[in-house]
Design brief:
seven-stranded mixed sheet; 15 helices; binds flavin-adenine dinucleotide; alpha+beta; single chain
């Protein structure tokens, strides 16, 4: 019989509880996990939109979807609506169904052929039109737990309630300690122990830094290498505000991302009569006071509310090149962060835990395994950076911020456009590397930002054999009919959540 590996996780925000839960599920009795967190500062409290991969976590932790929705005030997220990234325009980035669905009887596989169909046939073929992203439409209740449907929705939720609820689901398997870490003892290579304010020293075989922006463990190690990407993603400030909505207001099933002259604003519907919202900008171009004034104006115009919050979160886009170092790994915000444009952070946290498990770092912590996990993490981070960068391939020049963006990306935009229009038929615009975002996502953003030459795409589409083109159109017709039939079965998102 092996003695279980002792794992200490510092932090019980979303990253800490996801790491604790997935590691315990994977190793069962072979690990003994202790999570330490500061009760006065449970979690950052933002991070309210997820990607569909969050469903995998619930499944692995055996948390019923409906219980989760009820306990964390969740709403269903079918995608993101981008507004004014090109002034006066909007586009929708939907989560796509990636597999055959028995219900919808359409083959929506993840290849260029389908992407062409998506593009050419337009919104008729997009999942948003199948499920309806219009206010008032929800998700057909019967599809919620269907395996095939899980890849096509995420959640909006209360970030604080999320980590609290998952903690409560794990409390019989994992030790949670409410105490403050006052110092971390390391020889530069390894973490030796952690000193808690009340309990004194605790030690472990393996340490996980989920302490958020504090990076309590990782910054005690030598040889940490930070990759700064602020030249590509310069936004570094967020003013956070919760916006109350009327009791009887409908609940949207998508996140809104609206570009402004200084950056952009997010709005996430949470199921207790509020939006989580925030104003993002770059301190190089906009002072906090200027941002406050602009956000206040937006709140008045859009919600008839004034800015009441004084909470500003400061961050800097970048990540640790090696997130696994000797006996410690950094996960979640402690390992890096890029601005929240596509809600990639929790999804990348899930991937990081999966890299740890895949390469068996906790039970077989060799330099070779660490190298493999670090390589995967690096690839993922670069995939996220490339994908977020794409969202800024816009022609806005209405402020110094946008002038900087447009000028600094001019070459990349030009090259990308050429690639889109030359290569669309035979190879992927991603160079066949779907590292984080799928080709469908690239198509949706590129189309929304007018990066494709329409005539060229059409020409390349019709190079397919006529039978294929016919099939695409037939698929779209089937999608349209399914849409009509699903809509007739749908109830409003609000009612759906109330009845869950
Ligand atoms: C403006 C903004 C918007 C975001 N929006 C999204 C989004 O829509 N979707 C998304 O996926 N992600 C989003 N994120 C990222 C998201 O917030 C994080 O991925 C997520 O909340 C996980 O955070 P965490 O657990 O790493 O850190 P935190 O939530 O900060 O948790 C840190 C933990 O460390 C503990 N801790 C810290 N210091 C000590 C100490 N001295 N002693 C003991 N414990 C300590 C705290 O108690 C806490 O439990 C956003 C981030 C920002 C900044």
């Amino acid at each position: 019989l092996h003695t279980p590996k002792r794992v200490v996780i510092v932090g019980s925000g979303t990253a800490g509880v996801i790491a604790a839960g997935l590691i315990k599920e994977h190793y069962k009795d072979r690990v003994d996990i202790t999570v330490v967190y500061d009760k006065l500062n449970e979690s950052i409290g933002v991070g309210e939109g997820t990607l569909p991969s969050f469903s995998d976590v619930l499944e692995k932790l055996k948390i019923p979807v409906r219980e989760f929705i009820k306990n964390v005030n969740a709403t269903i997220k079918l995608g993101i609506n981008f507004k004014n990234w090109i002034p006066e325009t909007e586009y929708f980035h939907a989560f796509y169904l990636k597999r055959d669905t028995e219900r919808l009887r359409i083959k929506l596989d993840n290849n260029l052929y389908t992407s062409h169909a998506n593009w050419e046939l337009g919104s008729r073929f997009e999942i948003k039109s199948i499920l309806g992203h219009t206010p008032g439409y929800g998700v057909p209740s019967s599809l919620l737990e269907r395996e095939q449907f899980k890849s096509s929705y995420g959640y909006h939720m209360d970030g604080v309630l999320c980590s609290r609820y998952i903690r409560s689901c794990l409390k019989d398997k994992i030790t949670f300690i409410e105490d403050e870490v006052i110092s971390v003892n390391s020889d530069g290579e390894n973490i030796k122990n952690i000193c808690l304010k009340e309990r004194g020293n605790i030690s472990a075989d393996y340490y996980i830094d989920c302490s958020g922006f504090a990076k309590l463990l990782f910054r005690k190690l030598n040889r940490i290498e930070w990759k700064d990407v602020t030249d590509i993603l310069p936004i570094n400030r967020a003013i956070i505000q919760q916006i109350k909505t009327e009791e009887d207001a409908e609940i949207l099933n998508y996140t809104s991302s609206e570009a402004t002259t200084e950056g952009w604003i997010w709005q996430i519907p949470v199921n207790n009569n509020r939006y989580g919202s925030g104003y993002l900008y770059c301190s190089e171009f906009t002072s906090d006071e200027e941002a406050r004034i602009s956000y206040n104006k937006w709140l008045i115009e859009n919600h008839d509310k004034t800015l009441t919050s004084s909470k500003i979160i400061k961050f800097s886009s970048g990540y640790y090149v090696n997130f696994c170092l000797n006996n410690c790994t950094a996960i979640g915000l402690a390992s890096g962060f890029f601005e929240p444009l596509e809600a990639t952070s929790i999804a990348s946290t899930i991937n990081q835990v999966n890299f740890l498990l895949k390469h068996d770092i906790i039970s077989c912590n060799t330099s070779c395994n660490r190298k493999l996990a670090n390589e995967e993490n690096k690839k993922m981070q670069q995939g996220i950076i490339d994908f977020l960068d794409l969202h800024y391939f816009t022609s806005r020049t209405d402020s110094n911020f946008w002038k900087y963006i447009t000028n600094s990306k001019a070459d990349s935009i030009q090259k990308y456009k050429e690639k889109c229009n030359l290569d669309l038929l035979n190879s992927s615009i991603l160079d066949n590397k779907e590292v984080f975002a799928t080709l469908e996502s690239y198509i949706a953003i590129s189309k929304g930002l007018n990066l494709f030459d329409k005539a060229n795409v059409r020409k390349s589409l019709y190079q397919y054999p006529p039978t294929h083109v016919f099939q695409m159109k037939t698929n779209a017709d089937i999608a349209e009919r399914c849409l009509q039939s699903l809509k007739s079965q749908e109830i409003s998102h609000k009612l759906f959540l109330a009845n869950i």
